[in-house]
């Protein structure tokens, strides 16, 4: 493979990945097929391209092509490609779950809405008030009341002395036992 073919394959590969990430799966399949045809299928890059192509096939609704290519990827010489191929094949061959309509959320079609409609504000709820109902005044800082010291019991509490003696006794016991 020449360097020119390799560069063309890389450009097609990047274009295919970009198209896939944009959601244009048909274009992604086309670009990835072209890039896959330009590289050696047994190379690491060829394996990466095959995995991307399997994903693009599935997204584009071409499940049989995806499963066929995924089975080939399971036999790939590159270990990483083989593992990814086996994982994808397991997912692709898994039975489809049946869904009930109440489990799904319908997304409304917004194509008919004019972007310049000024009579509706789509960013706000129709129940939200458009103007504030009352003016909120800033809160004033709370100043604590002064404490009358003649009302406070300032007599010494013996708890501190009891706790200090107990701590000294525990430390002395630990030193004596060690």
TrEMBL record:
Residues 115-139 are annotated as: Disordered. The keyword Transmembrane applies. The keyword Transmembrane helix applies. Keywords: Membrane, Transmembrane, Transmembrane helix. InterPro entries: TPR-like_helical_dom_sf. Signal peptide: none annotated. The chain crosses the membrane at residues 158-177. It comes from the Bacteria. This is Tetratricopeptide repeat protein.
């Amino acid at each position: 493979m020449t360097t020119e073919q390799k560069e063309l394959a890389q450009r097609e590969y990047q274009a295919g990945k970009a198209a896939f990430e944009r959601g244009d799966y048909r274009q992604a399949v086309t670009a990835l097929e072209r890039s896959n045809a330009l590289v050696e299928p047994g190379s690491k890059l060829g394996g990466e391209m095959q995995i991307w192509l399997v994903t693009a096939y599935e997204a584009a609704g071409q499940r049989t092509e995806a499963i066929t290519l995924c089975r080939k990827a399971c036999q790939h010489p590159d270990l990483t490609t083989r593992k990814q191929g086996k994982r994808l094949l397991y997912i692709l061959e898994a039975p489809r779950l049946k869904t009930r309509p109440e489990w799904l959320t319908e997304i409304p079609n917004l194509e008919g809405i004019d972007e310049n409609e000024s009579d509706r504000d789509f960013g706000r709820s129709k129940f939200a008030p458009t103007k504030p109902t009352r003016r909120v005044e800033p809160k004033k800082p709370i100043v604590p009341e002064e404490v009358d010291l003649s009302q406070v019991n300032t007599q010494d509490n013996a708890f501190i002395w009891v706790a200090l003696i107990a701590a000294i006794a525990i430390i002395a016991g630990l030193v004596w036992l060690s």
